[in-house]
């Protein structure tokens, strides 16, 4: 095996970059709470040459932040519970357990968004924020990128009802024993479970791996 072969096996970079896509046209077909665009494009092919022109719809959504609240001293986590239209036909119902989350506004830093959302959705101010990772929830049709944090706080007595009236938010903050949450996380089925959204699952699995260095366990 040559050095070039080894590099190919370990290099996970995609073969093509942004310049391998030609946008023929782009138009907004809906603009409301979210924006939907229709694009005509063509792109490079692995077998060589270019594709024919194709149409794709793009759900335009910018960067967002999610924050897992963790109390390492008392072995507690806090999750929000709120109505989600995308979960309307979910077997568990459309009220979902999630990490605190919100969209990034223009010129806001990720940490500033995290602290703003913690105040709005949990009534908490925290000193320590630990960056978990970023990821794209659904790159097949959405431009959204989500940045995850873990915030350390004393969660005793933190339960309550939060959210902004002008954004029609009705949020219940639930403080739960950490091990009980881990047990629920592992008891999922094909139909989902009480905790079945990507941001919360990823954050909790990260906490399982990093709990000791967060001061818990």
How would you sum up this structure, described in words?
The protein has 217 residues and is of the alpha+beta class. The protein has 2 domains: 3-60, no CATH class; 63-214, Nucleoside Triphosphate Pyrophosphohydrolase (Alpha-Beta Complex). It is built from 4 helices and 11 strands, in the order αβββββββαββββαα. The strands form 2 sheets. Strands 4, 5, 6, 7, 8, 9, 10 and 11 form an 8-stranded mixed beta sheet that branches. Strand 1 (21-31) and strand 2 (35-43) form a beta hairpin. The longest helix is centred in the middle third of the chain and has 13 residues, at 110-122. The relative contact order is 0.17. Mean pLDDT is 92; it is low at 1-5.
Brief overview:
The protein is an alpha+beta fold.
Percent in strands:
35-45%
Which shape, going by the Cα principal axes?
A: globular
Please tell me the total number of domains: 2
With helices defined by DSSP (H or I, 4 residues minimum), what is the helix count? 4
CATH class label of the largest domain = Alpha Beta
Mean pLDDT: 92
CATH hierarchy: architecture of the largest domain: Alpha-Beta Complex
Return the string of H and E elements. Answer: HEEEEEEEHEEEEHH
The description of the largest β-sheet is: 8 strands, mixed
Distance between the termini: 44 Å
CATH topology of the largest domain: Nucleoside Triphosphate Pyrophosphohydrolase
Going by CATH, the homologous superfamily of the largest domain would be Nucleoside Triphosphate Pyrophosphohydrolase
* Count of DSSP strands: 11
